[in-house]
Amino acid sequence: MLDRHHWLKRISALDPVRDHVEIHRISAGHEFPWDYTRALEFALFRTYCVPSISALLAATGEFRSRPQKRYDDTALLMAEIAAHGYESARGRSALRVINRAHGHYAISNDDMLYVLSTFVFDPIDWISAYGWRRLHPHEELAAFHYYREVGARMGIRDIPSSFAEFRTFKRGYEESRFVYADSNREIGDYTVGLFAAWFPAFLRPAARVGVRSMMPPAMLDAFGMRPAPALVGVMARAGLRARAFALRFFPARAESALARMPHNRTYPGYPSGYHPDDLGAPPPPADIPAHCLRARPPRS
């Protein structure tokens, strides 16, 4: 068994700029795999508070017809890049799948930049609140440099050059773009339903309330959802902090959890028998409004 602080010692010895891929792999795969998964779920959920994002998602019909597959594709593609690196063969394949899917649609650079910012800062904020230890400064900076490189390979322009500048961009975007829209509510309801579906039927109503209890007022307003009873939020946060306290006494994880999802709902046994090229969304539906498309690809 590895000493509990084995990976923290390794992180502290690495350079957050030069070694950002390794640091991020350790942080997301060894130290905080469960926390990164939950944080990125909420990061994507948060982006649906922006009407220009939710309207496009509603137009594709993906959340209506196959929400679990869309969730699994996104999670696995990002995990492939983190596990193997954005310059690896599997990492490049995952990026090609992501870019091909995005390339069909008229997505603004600012919206893409905002989504990227949530991938950097939502895990940092989640782990600050519910992680078994505080993030090392190298982990925070490495996450910024890692996603900056990923974003550049996704064709995202004008990515801020500093951690603080990117944080400021994210806050400003949320303050100006989080407003209610029917499409926000539609995609929000589908997503809450997806989260609840992971539980037995008798627990699903409680799961829906639990999800709302973790949402700040700005998100609730943008989705048009009622706040959960205050006691539910208190209990949820207490449970997360109790879990974090218990994890302090566990040995360090020897094997990375990234892209190791044998119980995946859409791709059983992943990654055995699967490749990043097997993932991803289908072409746009024939009835999608023309203004949602960047350029309609020829249909065979």
Automatic annotation (TrEMBL):
Pfam families the record matches: MPAB_Lcp_cat
Ranges of residues in domain ER-bound oxygenase mpaB/mpaB'/Rubber oxygenase catalytic: 53-232
Positions in coiled-coil regions: none
Chain segments carrying region Disordered: 271-300
InterPro entries found in the cross-reference section: MPAB, MPAB/Lcp_cat_dom
Domain of life the protein comes from: Bacteria
Name of this protein: ER-bound oxygenase mpaB/mpaB'/Rubber oxygenase catalytic domain-containing protein
